[in-house]
Each structure stands twice: as structure tokens, then as C-alpha cells.
Amino acid sequence: MTDRKSTFLQGARDISPILAGVMPFGLICGAVGVSEGMPEWASSMMSVIVFAGASQLAAIQLMSENASIAVVILTGLIINARFFMYSASIGPYLKGASPLQKAGLAYLLTDGGYAVSVAHYLRSETGSVNKVWYYLGTNVVIWVGYIFSTIIGAYVGAVIPPEWRLDFAVPLTFTAVVMPAIVDRPMVLAALVSGGMAVAASSLPYNLGLMVGAVSGMVVGYLAERRLANA
Amino acid sequence: MLDMSDYWPVVLGIGVGVFLIRYSFILIIDKVTLPEMVQRMLRYIPASVLPALIVPAVLLHKDGGVTTFAGWDQLAAALIAVLVAWKTRNMLATIASGMIVLWGILFFL
């Protein structure tokens, strides 16, 4: 029993530095939601139900542009398609849990918790029960920090005047998220093409310009990578 | 301004969808490996989807059906933020630098 507890606490300790990156996300999600017209409770509740910062910000931005519900949902899901990779990668380590327990573990899955947990599993030989408790330690800390900061953001955001253009924090946050992901030349090309095409196609209805930009970027990046591989 | 009547469909739609994405392979414990083509495409999602959200939000101002250039203040702030993001890789520094440049131009120039 104490073994589980100490493993949980170890996960919690190991993840703590990542809170510095998680809390601003929560603050901005909470504040921007309110500044775009949500009540404080709704902005906070969104973090509990969705629990994925980038998807939430994209959804808030698109809703404020009156995009269709289908486009908003689709964009929110595409942004989080990376969780397929995390789920496939961490699944084998969480074998010991029942389907219901797995549902709880899956709900809590985060970028940081995934990365720190897998690194820990590769470093040390822990039993399968302890793997689950370590995972919980990392992700529960992120959950608490994220929800707490969203609530603060929602109530602070409620008093920020519109002249401050708080909504501009959304593209800035995305910039901070995307920069580390751009690691090679095909990625740079994908980003430039995607941004350019999204602006060029911005007059299309239903926010299709976003889809045009994203798909062109992916295709160009993929083709550039293949050309480099064959060169 | 957003329409609160969109709130529940969007939040539940994304919430349930993202949960299912997270749950997918954790539920199916067999050592699943995604096809390489899919893995490669997935790698490009952040670098493709996010700029498609960032660039129009920085450059364009949408008001009803009319789209205009958002202004040099946002562009200058975004360029500084890109530079800071590239140099520091620090989320807080990136957001703070962009907002401070924007406020500096808005309130002091």
C-alpha cells in the first residue's frame, strides 16, 4: 500500500516542473472563454470535460468567429489526433487495469504525463500496478493544476476590459506550442504553406480556409520529407 | 463573441471525441503499431493545423461577413513572439512578449 503511495508521489514530484507550462494554458483558456462571452462556470467546465488546452482554444476562437459546429468539433479533434500515438505507446504499460479503470486513466492522459511516465518506465523496472500509480501521480497533478488555473483565469478574465485584446493570447499560445514541433525543413515548409493557404482561402465559407491550410501543409510537408529521403 | 447555444454540442462533441482518442489503444492492449504512413502524417499535424489557426488570427479581422487587415500592431507583436518562441522555447515568455508589444503599441504609441 505504501509502495503505491510512494510511487504516486514520485510521479507527482517528477511532473511538477511541467506545471509551469500547464498553468498558463489553463489561465488563458479560462480567461479567453469568458472574454469571448462564456459565463465563468462554462469556461471552467470546458477544461473539465475536454481537458485539452489547444483544442479548447481552437474551439473558442472558431466559435467566436461563428464557425459551424461541425468545423469546430472536427478541428478540436484533429488538433488532438496526437493522443492516438500516446495511447498506442502507453497502452502496453497499463495492461493490468480493468476497462473501467482504463477509462479513468485514458481521460487523464496528457502530453507531459505521457512523456514523463514512459521515460520512467524505460528507466526503471516497476511492477504493472506501480506503473499505473506512477501514471496517476503525473497526470492527476497536471489535472489539478490545469483545472485550478482555468478557474482562476475565468474569474480574472471576467474583469479584463475588451480593449486589452485578450483574445490575441490565443495565437500567441499556439505559437509557443508549435515552435518546438518545427524541427526540420519539411516542418518549416509545412508551417509556411499552411499559414499562407489559410489566409489565401480565408474567404471560403464554414471556415474551410482552416482545413485548406492544414491539409496543404500536411501534404507539402510529407512530400518534402519523401524528396529529402530520396535525394 | 460566441453564441452560448453552441456550447454544449461543441464541448460534449470534442470532450467525448478526445476521450475516445485517448481511450482507443489503452483499451486494446495488444501491441498496436500504427502504419508508418499514418504515423508520418500524424507528425505533421501540429506544424500544419496550428499555423492555419495562427496566421489568419494575426493578420485578419473578421467582422460579420467583412474581412479586413487586422493591423500592424498585431503583426509586429506576433513577429516578436515568434522570435522569442524560437530563441527561448518558453511558453510564458512567448505569450508575455507578444502581449506586452501589443499593449505597448496600443496604449503608448
TrEMBL record, chain B:
Transmembrane segments: 6-29, 41-60, 66-86, 91-108
Keywords noted in UniProt: Membrane, Transmembrane, Transmembrane helix
Superkingdom: Bacteria
Protein name: AzlD domain-containing protein
Organism: Pseudodesulfovibrio nedwellii
